[in-house]
Structures are given as C-alpha cells and as structure tokens.
Amino acid sequence: MLTYLIRRLFAAAVMLVVIVLVVFSIFFLIPKWTGVDPATMYVGKASDAAALEGIRQKLGLDDPILVQLFEFFKAIFVGRDYTSAGSTTRCDAPCFGYSFKTEQAIWPVLTDRFPVTFGLAIGAAVIWLIIGLTAGVLSALRRGSIWDRASMTVALAGVSLPIYFTGLISLAIFSYGLGWVSNEYTPIEESFPDWFSGMILPWVTLAFLFGAMYARLTRATMLEVMGEDYIRTARAKGVREMVVIRKHAMRSTMTPIITLLGVDLGMLMGNAILTETTFSLPGLGQAVLKAIGERDLPVILGVTLITATAVVVANLVVDILYSVIDPRVRLA
Amino acid sequence: MTAPLHDTVPAETADADVAARVAKDAVEGRSLGRIAWTRLKRDKLAVAGGVVVLSLILVAIFAPLITSLVGQEPNEYHQDLIDPLFGTPTGSLGGISSDHLLGVEPVNGRDVFARIVYGARISLLVGFLSAMVAVVLGTVLGILAGYFGGWLDALISRTMDMLLAFPQLLFIISLIAVMPNKLLGLEGTGVRLLVMILVIGFFGWPYIGRIVRGQTLSLREREYVEAARSLGAGRRYILFKELLPNLIAPITVYTTLMIPTNILTEAALSFLGAGVKPPTASWGQMLNTAVRYYQEDPMYMVVPGVAIFITVLAFNLFGDGVRDALDPKGTR
User: Fold this and answer.
1) How far apart are CA A273 and CA A279, in angstroms?
2) Which of A276, B108, B242, B275 could make a disulfide contact with A283, Cβ separation 3.0–4.6 Å?
3) DSSP 3-state assignment of A4?
4) Which helix (H) or strand (E) holds A91?
C-alpha cells in the first residue's frame, strides 16, 4: 500500500509540474508565435511605449522562458518584488502572480473564491452520487419496469440539456416564480440558512447533469454484473437476494463508477464555471470570466493552475479510494 | 459469444419463396454492418434521432435558402418591433408573428428563427469537425499504444490520463483569450472556430484512444493476426488490413456519442463569450444574451435552449441506437 501511495503521489507531482509548464508556455509562446507583444496584454490598449517598457521590466517579459518559469516557481515559495522605475510592488508568498489591472496579488483572490466553487462542487457531488447511483441500481434491478423507463428518460434528458439552460429555467420557476429559494449568494459565515437557500438551485442543477450520467452508467454496469457467473453461484449457494445485490453486485459495480469520478473532475470544474455564471456565484469561474473580459492574464493563469491542482489532488484521493475498494489495483 | 445472425421467421410467413430466400441468405451470411443496420432500423427511438440529425444537417447546409423562403435575414435589425423603454420585443411571446416565426431578439430585433437556422451551422460544424480531429488522433495513437506497447504505450497512456483529468473548458477559455484576432489568413470568428475545433478535438481524442488501445491490445493476440504474421504480412498490412477493420465498430459508437458532447462544449464556450464572435449567430451566444432578459422575455431564452436540447438529444438517441446495434452482446 505504501509503495502504491508513494507512486501515486509522485505521479501527481509530475502532473502538476507538467500542467504549470503547459499553461505557462501558452501564455508565453502563443503571443510570441502570433507576433503579439505580451506586454500589451498586461496593460490597457492606449498604453505608450514607456508604459510597455515598464511592464516588460517589471514582469521580466524579455527574459528567456526558463528564467521566467523559474521566477514564477520561486515566487510561489518566497514571494516576489516587482520593480520598475524605482517603484516596487511586493507580492508575498505564495505569490501566484500580480494583476496589474486590479493592482492586487492573485493569491488572496484565489483563496477568497475557491471555497465558493469547492462548496458548489462538493454539495452537487453528494446529491448526484446518492440520486444517480440509487436510480441506476433500481433501474437495473427492475429492468423494463415503469420506474426504469421513467428514470432513464429523465436521465437521457439530463445529459442532453445544457446546464446553463436548466439553471435559468429553474431560477425562473423556483426563485422568481414561486419564491421558494433565494437567488442571491450569501457567504456561509454570514448566515447558514441563507447560504443554503442560495445554493440549493446551483447544487441541484449541477447534480442533475452528473446524476443523469451516473444513473445511465450505473444501470449499464449493474446489468452486466448481474449477468456474471459468480452472481449465479452466489444465488445457487442460497445467499439471500439482498446480500447478493449488496455484497456481490454493488461492489464490482462501484469500480467503473469511481474511475469515472476521477475522470469527470476536470469536466466538473468546467460545469461549475457555467453554473457559477448562471447563478452569479462569486467563485473561481466568475473570476476567470471577468479576467478574460479584461484580458487580465495573471488571474487566468492563477485560476487555471489552482483548478488543475484541485483536480489533481482530488484524483489522488479517488485513486486511493479505488485501491481500497479494488485490491487488484495496488498490485498492478 | 455469437451474435444472433438470423432473424427467426414466423411460421405463417414461411412459405416456400421466403424459405428459399432465407436459406440463400444464410449461405451467404451477412456482414456486421448489415446486421447492425437491420437492428438499428428496428430501434424506433434511434431512427427518430437519426431523422432529426439528418434534417438538422440539411437545415445547416441550406440555411440561406430556408431563411430566404421565410423572407428573413439573420443580421437584419427590426428595431420597430422593440419597446424602446425596456428593450424587449413589443409583441406577445417574444414578438412571435407570421413574419417572425420564433419572435425577435431583445434590443436589436433580429429574427430569432433565422439566427437559430444559422446557429445550426456553427453547432454542427464544430461538433463534427472536432469529432473528426479526435477520431484521427485517437485511432492513430490508440493503435500505436496498443500494438507496440512498451515505452510508447506508457507515454501515450499517461498523456491520455492527464488530458482526461484536465479542466478542459477552462483551458480552452484561456487559450482563446491569448489568441490574436487574425491568424493564418482567418479573422475573428474564423480564428475562434479553428481554435475551438482543434482544441475540443484535442481534448476528445483520449476517449477514442482509450477504447482503441484496449481493443488493439486484445486483437493483436488473436489467431488471425498471428496467422497473418506467420504468412509474412508486414506491420503496415497487419495494422491497416487486419486490425483497423475490427476497430471500426467501437470507433463509430464513440464518435456518434462524442458529437453531442462537442456541440454542448461549443454552446458552453459561446455562452461564456469565448465562442464565435458577434454578429455570427450561435445558440450558446443567444443564451448568453438571454440571461439579461429572461424575466421580461423568457421566449428568447427558451428557443435556443430547446434547439440545443433537441439537437443533443437526437444525437444521443441515435448514438445509443448505434451502440446497441453494434454491441454483439445486445444486453441493453
């Protein structure tokens, strides 16, 4: 188990470094290939030559990419001073860059907004795993029944509806129409009931899409597993049906589901951005969209990195969970 | 595991003529494609999905003809139909009339029907072409990984794992943010389309690649490949003549199911303002505008949302049908 853990940790670290490299080179190399001066992306359009030169010096944009990359990594651990024309801006560790549009370090922005996105993703995950797995298992066990048909129809609709459309419709009906829930975000420390009320629709909207996907997958896997020989053997031995389902069938149904969970985390972040935009939640998604509108590259870089990190870490957790459920993984 | 090759012929129709034909059929045997086609034709939902998909393709191709038939242009302003105070259409239900079949959009009063028809072009173009990029990359790299194994397999497999877990929507957004307005002779929407097709395709290939790799791994050990090898068949012959034809079925299934996902990604990007540029019509972009007016003019939100829903649903139904038809187990 320990070797497995170490190997997975190492793989996660490698992946993080690769992601930083890739994201960093996008912002460094693409402007270079397409002949755009990266300095113009950091200041406004109506900037004079002196301002551009100042930015270039401050950010070290003329340095080779390896130097810039080194500076970037160094800043995460020890912070960084941006100096030009005598004035110095200090960015404390962990420094993920400094936005010259808003005159703010990126890290506090990220730590401010991460909990919103995180809360959205976790809440939705709880809902979709409970609903999706239950619906899938019940559909497989009662194959062809009204329940099976109804839930699979809903699931098919769920995977075919864009999340921002379901979100807008649910807002129109439940918030503006019926007034059951709040349409505004309240921070959890201010008032828990208000926070909860504002998060219900985003959670359900996000969970509807993923729940539908998982219900379809669970049903298909469960049907396959129930046809296996060892299920017949268990029944032939006289094991009670409930035990066959719980101990024999469910356990092997879970393995592909957990694999999917790891793969889907990246997709979840994308959909979380869409959900945040639809419900005006002040999370990472909104921050990055605002940054795109203003072409605030350091913020985009920071958000991409922290999201990728979250996905890598979550994947690590999923992998470890996986090895607990399926001992074969550890040996491979 | 043998597929049911022959339909059972009901006794009452089994006259001599039919029996003779069936017998002839049985001697000739039927190709996998023929069997799949017969099964697909029997699946009503899949046929319905296929018909809708086909009509959508025709709508996209003949968009200028269709809009000229109803006498509307996608970019023509009709500000006389807009309430100057609120910016919403004056007529009921978003200004639906015999001239404007689906109403007019808020503020500018452009015809919604014409924009939906033209929007189909963008959705299908990105959906199909990015799927093609994914299929080409996924098939080539999947076969290479599965057939040669070793370090090449390790490299390709790790890359696939990483891409699958990557928050791709965020990545595409940041990439589009640094793309210049002009590139390779394209401008504005052209650049955005190119980037979307290539990047969505690039993030899609691991889904195909994983399946192809797995299939190749098991196929290369089969007797017929062994036989070809012992007869002195070259590597290229084995890859293209022995392996590839047996991979067509899984590739077809995953491609059909990938197109709707790609359409949703394009719509999401346009919804976030990172898709095609105005005035080019796109469904996601219409929803983006609709967010601001959905309380006063809900019709404008419903129309593009339903367009996306129907399109994606039709592709999913068709794709599910293709999967069931090509699946020799036929469990679902």
Assistant:
1) 10
2) A276
3) helix
4) strand A87-91
DSSP state for residue A100 in the 8-state scheme: T
Q: Return the structure tokens found at B52.
A: 């809708």
The predicted pLDDT at position A36 comes to: 63
User: What's the N-to-C CA distance of chain A in angstroms?
Assistant: 11
**Residues within 8 A of B (CB atoms), A 31-60 only:** 31, 34-36, 41
pLDDT of residue B4: 44
Tell me the three state secondary structure of residue B204.
helix
Query: Please, which residues 254-313 of chain B have a Cβ atom closer than 8 Å to chain A?
Result: 260, 264, 267-268, 271-274, 284, 287, 290-291, 294-295, 298, 301, 305, 308-309, 312-313
Instruction: Give the contacts of B4 (CB within 8 A, at least 6 positions apart).
Output: B330
pLDDT surpasses 80 at A261: no
Torsion of CA B187, B192, B198, B199, to 10 degrees: 150
A150 CB within 8 Å of a chain B CB: no
The answer to whether residues B72 and B327 touch, using CB atoms and an 8 Å cutoff, is no
CA–CA–CA angle A124, B294, A300 (5° rounding): 55
Consecutive sets of 10 residues in chain B, 332 residues long: mean pLDDT of each? 43 53 57 76 83 88 77 69 67 66 71 82 90 92 86 84 77 76 68 86 88 83 82 82 82 86 88 80 83 76 87 88 71 40
Q: Which two tokens stand for residue B228?
A: 């070809």
Nearest-neighbour CA in chain A from B289: distance (Å):
12
Distance from CA of A177 to the nearest CA of B (A): 10
* ipTM of predicted assembly, 2 dp: 0.78
Render pLDDT for A267-289 as a digit per residue (tens, 0 to 9): 788 888 888 888 888 888 888 87
pTM of the model: 0.80
Q: Provide the pLDDT for residue B186.
A: 67
8 Å CB contact between B200 and A267: no
